Every structure is written in C-alpha cells, then in structure tokens.
Amino acid sequence: MHRWVNAPRTALASIGLVACTCQHVLAQTPRWITVFDTSARYYGWSNSIGGSGTQVYVPYAVQTTGRPNDDLKAEFLVRSGYIWSQQKSNGVTAVGQSLTDTTLASTVTYYGWNGIHPFASININAPTAKTSSGSSSTTRIDSDLVATPIFGEGWNIGPSIGASFAIDLSLIATLSYGYVYRGPFDEGPSLNATALNTPSGKLNPGDVSTLDVGLGYSGDRFTGRISVSYSTESRTYDDGMPLYQAGDRVIVTGKGGYAWTDNWSSRVAGSFSHFNHNNVPLQGVPDLVREALNSNSDVYRVAFDTTYASGNFSIGPTGAYLWRDHNGYDPTNLLFIPAKVSWSAGAAADIAPTATTSISLSVQHIWVHENATANVVDAFNLVIANSGIPESSTNAWVATVGGSVRF
Amino acid sequence: MLEWQQHKRQRGPDITLRFAVVLAAALTGLAAPAHAQSPCPEGRTFSGECVKPDLARTMRKSAIIYSLPKFSHTAPPLLPSEDGEYYVPPDYNEMHQLFGVGAASVDCAVVFVRGHAVACR
Questions:
Q1: Chain A neighbours among B 60-79 (CB < 8 Å)?
Q2: Are B113 and B78 contained in the same domain?
C-alpha cells in the first residue's frame, strides 16, 4: 500500500507513519502496481553582482513494483527528464536545453527469512542528454540553487547489495555496499582547455565505492532514521592525464518526524558531508600528491516542515538552512569556491483527488550569501586581476507542481 | 614461539570453524524460513511479526541511495516526488571542476595551461 493511497490523509501519513495492517494488505493489494510520477520545477534567481538565471526541469518516471512470489519483491524504475536553462552574467546570456540522462533501475528483495531481508539493486545511467546543447559552463547553475545543475554525463553503472535487519516491527537496521562505475564523457568547452576555443577533451570521473549503515524507527507518534556512509573514490582523468582523486568522504543524514495531533505533524531532516584531502597534480612530481590544504569544504544542511492534514488535503510551511563552512579551493582552475550560507522558506501542499492520484504544489524563496575571495595568485606568484570573487547575495524562487497516478 | 602462541596457532582454525558454525546456526535460527506463514508486504521480524511496510521501504531505499552517492547527477533512481526525501549533498568541488557549475556567478574565470593560470576572461 502506498502512502499516498491512504486517503483520508492524516498527520501520521505525512511523516511516514501508517498503522500496520500488514496481515491483510498483501492479499488486498494487486501483486503488481505501476506508478507514473512527474513534476515541473521552475527556478529563477538573480544576484547582487549582475548575474541571473532561470531553469525549468521536468523529471518523469515510471515504476513497477510486484511480488513474483511470496518470498520475492521486484521493483523496476525508468526515469528521465527535460531541462531548459538560461543564465546571464556580465551581459552575456547562455541558453541550453536537453533531455537529461535516463536511469534504468531494478531492485530485488528476498523475504524468505524472518528478520533478514537481503536486497540487490542494479542502476544504469544512460547518457541520453544532448551534451552538445547548452554545454557551455555558463548554462550550469549553482548546485546549491538547483537540484540538477547539469544536463548529463557518461554511462554510470551502480550495483548495490545489502540487507535490512528487522529487529522488531518498528525498528530496522540496514547495511549496504554500492559501487558506481562512471564512464567517460566529453567535458565541453572552457574546462581545462589549453587555449580558448579548443576542442573539448574527455573526462573520465573516478569510480566510487560506498559502505552505508542505517537505522530507522517508526513508533506511534515518532518516526526517525539515520544513515552514515563512507566513500572512497578512484582517480579522475582528463584526456588520459590524472586530474585529481577526491578524498574519502563521510555523509551523515538523519530525519525525524513527530505527529502532534491527528492533523498536525512536523519533520526535520539534517545532513553533513565531509571530504578528506584530495590528491592533486604537482608540477615536477609524476604522481598525484595529497594536497596541503583541504580543497573541500564541509557542508551542513537542515530542512524542516510542518503539515496540517485533513481528509485528502495537506498543507504547511517548509524551510531549509545550508552552511558551507569555509572557502574551498579548486586547485585545477585556481579558483576559490566561496563559503556560503543559504536560507529558504516556503509552503507545500498535497491533494489526493482520487484513491489512485495525487497532486503536489510547493513554492520556496531562497536567500544565499557568498563570501568574497581574494584574487588568484598564479604559479609565478603574479596576482591575476579581477580573478577574485566578490561578496554576493542571491535571491531565488523555486516553484514545483507534481503529480502521481497509480495503475 | 611461546606455548600460548603455539596453542593458539594450533587451535586457530578449529576456533574459526566453530565460530562459523555457531554464527551460521545462529543466523539460521534467527532468520527462520517464513514459508509456513502468510506473507507480509515487507517481510517479517525475527519474531515473526509483519514489519511496518513504510518503514521497511524507506530504509531499503535509503540504503540503496546512500550507497550510490554519485550515481547520475540528473536522473537518480527515485520517483521525482521522492527527490526531497533522500537528499544527497552534491560534491561542490567536483561540480565546479568537472562541470563548471556556478561559473556564471564569477566575474572572471581563469584560463590556464595545465595548471598554470595565464589569463582572466
């Protein structure tokens, strides 16, 4: 039974808590369910140093879930999308549009054992984006402003295996391991070019291995989960030359929700990301070496919402806070990446017109403040004029309308 | 070699084997087959109760998504309505280095020749 099918919607449903009617659900639910899910997202922003941009992103997906037999569950998902981006800076406008990449995902879960439910998942990112369109870096909007700043990349193949450990009906622990092969792709202009307007090169990003542990609880009023993952990454190559190797990474995410009454509920979600020092090229040294200063900044994010739910309708305020703790450094492009603080506030609503359909609406305003950075000093200790980033403030709007239909 | 080391060495494989047998037996006992029971939407606990299905689905999806943190920048293996539920912080350094993300907010981008900044445009 899907959460959004549970009309009338309650506060418990809005934080992911639904009374367990498990013994009867499987018999009542069709063995195979297909869901079509889509949304249209508008992003518009402008900053205090003359830049502005707009993006329309329309992702869509079809997911089929079923039980071939009592011991197995199979899930299949196909997702793609469309992006149109425009960005202005220094009087220059860059526009691009493209289909995004397309992901094919499949997960099989085994229920034949009490308490231990192993699963295996294979995920494939097919490079269906038209990289030649909008490949200018000026159409790529800040990844903290938009969820999808780029149009596409190369082939990704991501297997993941793991298991859920059902300690009791309200407490589940998970252990999983994933590997992402990331295939090469054309880097597009302006990145690591040996001169302006040179043909683009081939980027071969590093593969990523990740171990994740998670714990989730779902009680009468409270629900929460936490996940800790540790990743290692192989080298990234540019035209066959080692470009860098990202340091090991830790991501901690957590989410908690509480149903105050039958109609009111609140949720808070937090995440933390930390990289160790990268390995980077050093002139005169044949191999990559560990960078002296960590070019990666730590990122903290907290999001919260409160929902009023009644009947088949729910609405409530949303907000988020993001903090990039210090200026990171891009050793390849010799650029500082500014420290940043971002706030957002808005509202979201859901309505389920029928038992098999749902519509969601949301709008958010985002305020971003980026610190200034000094001018770049080149390898010959010469200061490059105007290469620093001035302090800036950005205002952005994000509006989303989405819908799901179950067949 | 000390006597206790010899003893440990001699008994090592035996202990390992015993541990493996005990572990397998424990897992087998704990994870008893659920064939004789009526099926649950998301399986059963060690004691045979039905797991809360929303919790089980969320945890499995979380385990998959967070084990693949850099899989597909444009099409994560989620329904679009689930994007906000499983937020993975982007690698801003990589976004900047590989894709030039955010470059338009910079007044000047440095042009360089294999690591040496040579101009600002």
A1: 60, 62-64, 66-79
A2: no
Are A154 and A127 spatial neighbours (Cβ–Cβ below 8 Å)?
yes
Q: What pairs with residue B41 in β-bridges? A: none
Check whether residue B5 and residue B23 sit in a common domain. Answer: yes
Residues B10 and B23 both lie in one domain: yes
Q: Are A3 and B82 contacting, i.e. CB atoms less than 8 angstroms apart?
A: no
> Domain check: are B68 and B44 in the same one?
yes
What pLDDT shows up at residue A381? 61
Nearest Cα neighbor of A304 from A360, A347, A260, A261 is A347
Q: What gap in Å lies between CA A80 and CA A128, rounded to an integer?
A: 9
CB-CB: which of A208, A271, A275 is closest to B70?
A208
Domain count, chain B: 3
In terms of domains, do B84 and B40 share one? yes
How many domains does one find in chain A?
A: 1
Residue in the structure block whose two tokens are 């200063």: A293
Low-confidence winner among A147-161, A371-385, B103-117 (lowest mean pLDDT): B103-117
Q: For residue range A32-70, list pLDDT tens digits in order.
A: 999 999 999 999 988 888 888 899 999 999 999 999 998
Q: Give the contacts of A208 (CB within 8 A, at least 6 positions apart).
A: A178, A179, A180, A182, A231, A232, A233, A234, B68, B69, B70
> What is the rounded distance in angstroms from the CA atom of residue A78 to the CA atom of residue A43?
24
ipTM over 0.95: no
Domain region containing A146: 3-406
Chain A residue numbers touching B113 (CB-CB < 8 A): 194-195
Which A-chain residues 63-102 have CB contacts (< 8 A) with chain B?
A: 63, 67, 70-71, 73, 77, 79-81, 83, 87-90, 94, 100-102
Range of the domain at B24: 1-31
Q: Where are the beta strands (DSSP E) in A169-284?
A: 171-182, 185-186, 202-204, 208-218, 222-233, 236-238, 241-244, 249-259, 264-275, 279-282
For the stretch B13-33, pLDDT in tens is 454 445 454 445 444 444 555
Distance CA A204, CA A185 (A): 7
Average pLDDT over chain B reads 67
Residues B69 and B56 reside in one and the same domain: yes
Token pair in block for residue A134: 């909008």
Closest by CA to A97, choosing from A145, A45, A142, A151, is A151
Residue of A112, A169, A205 lying closest to B34 (CB–CB): A112
Query: Which among B44, B58, B105 is the top mutation candidate for probing chain A, defined by the most A β-carbons within 10 Å of its own β-carbon?
Result: B105
Q: Which two tokens stand for residue A336?
A: 């500082």
Residue appearing with tokens 């990234």: A236
Q: Which of A149, A174, A385 has the CB atom closest to B101's CB atom?
A: A149
B84 and B59 within one domain: yes
The answer to whether A166 and A172 have CB atoms below 8 angstroms apart is yes
B67 and B99 belong to one structural domain: no
